[in-house]
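user: can you give me the structure for this one chain? tokens are fine.
assistant: on it. calling the predictor now.
[tool input]
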Amino acid sequence: MNATHALEVDEIQTTRGEKALAWVLGLFIAVGLVWTYVQLDLREPYALPPPLTATEQAAVDRLAAAESDLSAAEFARTAALEDLELRRERYRTALDEGRAAPGLAAEYRQAEARYAGAQRQVAAAQARVAAARPAADAVSKERAEEAEAQRLREDRLTFFLRLAFALVALGVAYGLLHVLRGSRYFMLGLGAVGAVAVLVLVFAGDYVEDYVELRNNGPVVLAVAGILLTVGAFWSLQRYLQRRIPLRRVRKGECPFCGFPAAGNSNCEGCGRDVAGLCSHCGEHRRVGVRFCGSCGRA
């Protein structure tokens, strides 16, 4: 882009249509960035756990068998208790009526013996369950810890991948803004920056409430990087404007320093500074703030 074209671009105001198109472009870029961000997920919500070893499976099977035996023993004890209560009631009724009922007495004694045996079986089953439970619980605990460790690894990888993606997108957007400054496509660069800002908000919303300390620092890192890049882009834009604004003012017949109308004088009536001088190459009259001499064309 030559100097004359740059001056023409600087003088043309950005239209509302261009601003609207830049906003629409930013919206579509944001949709693409957020979609890509969502796809960068290394977590496996439905991953099957690794198979148990033979020793681990035996420990789990022993507990399952012991618990099954305990359930059966408790069911048998309940049935024996019901039978005991029934035979005791029948024997008591016979005694209340004054009958000896030796047969009912024998049945009642047998029911008592069966109930006592059922209680012993329940106690033995409970002992087997108590003996088998520590090994099975150790297997369950170890598997749970492995699953949690795997989940944390996947969460960290996903976090760092998304953080890197957001930082790269931020850097590319500001690089594009720097490349497009001074051109008619500068608003498109602003649209790209706005789209990345939406991505950063999505990232912060995902991780700012997370309880994992490592990932709690992610939004802070992203915020600091964004602040530094934004301040750098603002500084670069200000330097660009400092070079362009004096040219605009001179073209309008104003003081390049304060913008007060120069009116053909050698000094500004607004700030008192020199607005005209001599060219260092040809010695002819040259306005302060212009890039080239009007007589010799030298810079």
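assistant: here you go. The chain has three domains: 3-44+157-264, 54-153, 265-299. The first strand starts at residue 276 and ends at 278.
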